[in-house]
Amino acid sequence: MGVIVFIETGSAVSIELNSLDILLPSKERQVVFAPLDFEEFLINIGMSNVADSIKTAAQAKNYQLFSINHDDCMRLFRTYMLIGGMPEAVEAYVKTRSYWEVIESQKVILSLFRKDLEAIDRRYGTHCRTMYENFPKCLGRNSFRFQFSDINSRPNSPTSLETVNKLAESQIGYIVKRAKNPDIGLSLTEDDTYFKGFYNDLGLAHCLCYFPENIDEHYDKFIDGDLRGHFGYIYENAVAQQLKLAGLDPHYFSWTETKDSTVYSYEVDFAFERHGKVQPVECRSSSYHALKSLDLLESKHMDTVRKGIIITSEPYNEKLGRQNFPFYSMFALFTPFDPE
User: Fold this and answer.
1) What integer pLDDT is reported at residue 25 of this predicted model?
2) Residue 106: is its pLDDT beyond 80?
3) Which of 199, 198, 193, 123 is nearest to 164 (CA)?
4) CB-based contacts of 217, cutoff 8 Å, min separation 6
5) Sheet holding 317-319: strands in order across?
6) CA 276/CA 270 separation, integer angstroms
7) pLDDT higher than threshold 60 for residue 224
8) pTM, entire model
9) Which of 44, 48, 144, 218 could form a disulfide with 212 if both were Cys (CB 3.0 to 4.6 A apart)?
10) Contact residues for 127 (Cβ-Cβ < 8 A; gap 6+)
11) Closest CA to 166 of 7, 318, 18, 16
């Protein structure tokens, strides 16, 4: 008897909803495709030589080589932040070099995503679409977590928890949960009610968050690094996306401490488990002078927490006793099989 092969394509949401209650007595393998990372973006726009030079420097741990073409690499990375890694958007950019064409393709993708999330909401009574579109608010308010009041819900309600789970399963959004204790393990101490939400594609994130009147001027100034504004969320989204693409299951830490009747708040942007220890990561889109939260985390958990690394827009350097890596080097630094 011959073998019949079926190939079903679509978003994670559409496949799940369309295959409910369908049981095939056969083997099934799921292949997940993600948006292009920065390396793949460079290859597709004809800049594979840049990707190769970044990887070579990272593999040799000769990080000073990053500084040779730093400004050009940051311009390319900021271009990637605007275009993103969706194949349709990248193709539009390669063919036309038109920001308008890119935005139109991104709007079509976002429309399809919204329909997928609405389908989940109808099926399960969740608030996935509303939560998805409210991701940036928590960082804009300097909050440690997504505010469930934005979707008229409570953190511990069954609907809220199901919304978070379904949105994570959709792979349209990335959920980064807070971990409570690095000494025990990140996943073992994660808090389902404290999380930060990010988009699975940087171009879509920018398209959702910013609505400039003059598209060309906005994009040109952003790429050159001359545009003033609060872009911290997009840069943090870039780190979250790369960690997720590398399969590193990022979490974050936040806590408060009281001294002399004053409550102080602390937060470390990301952390993942690496070679038996916890690796903290801070994201800085501009220059900085102190890292109090990271200092405190490292001092309190010296046996289980590694020296934190900083992802920044500056050239590679060592500041305050820590390594600072440029954003464009992340694809070469964060890999599933990162060597010691």
Assistant:
1) 57
2) yes
3) 193
4) none
5) 190-199, 173-179, 251-259, 262-274, 277-284, 309-312, 322-326, 317-319
6) 16
7) yes
8) 0.90
9) 218
10) 121, 151, 152, 153, 159, 160, 163
11) 16
Q: Average of pLDDT values for 136-165? A: 74
| Contact yes or no for 237/270 (Cβ under 8 A) | no
Distance CA 322, CA 319 (A): 5
**Which pair of structure tokens corresponds to residue 293?**
């939260």
Smallest CA-to-CA distance from 204 within 103, 334, 54 is with 103
What are residue 258's DSSP bridge partners? Answer: 263
pLDDT at 138: 60
Q: How far is CA 156 from the centre of its chain?
A: 25
pLDDT of residue 27: 66
Rounded CA separation 71/225 (Å):
9
Q: Tokens 């608010």 identify what position? A: 137
Treating both helix axes as pointing N-terminal to C-terminal, what angle do 70-83 and 48-59 enclose, rounded to 10 degrees?
A: 120
User: What are the tokens at 286?
Assistant: 């501009």
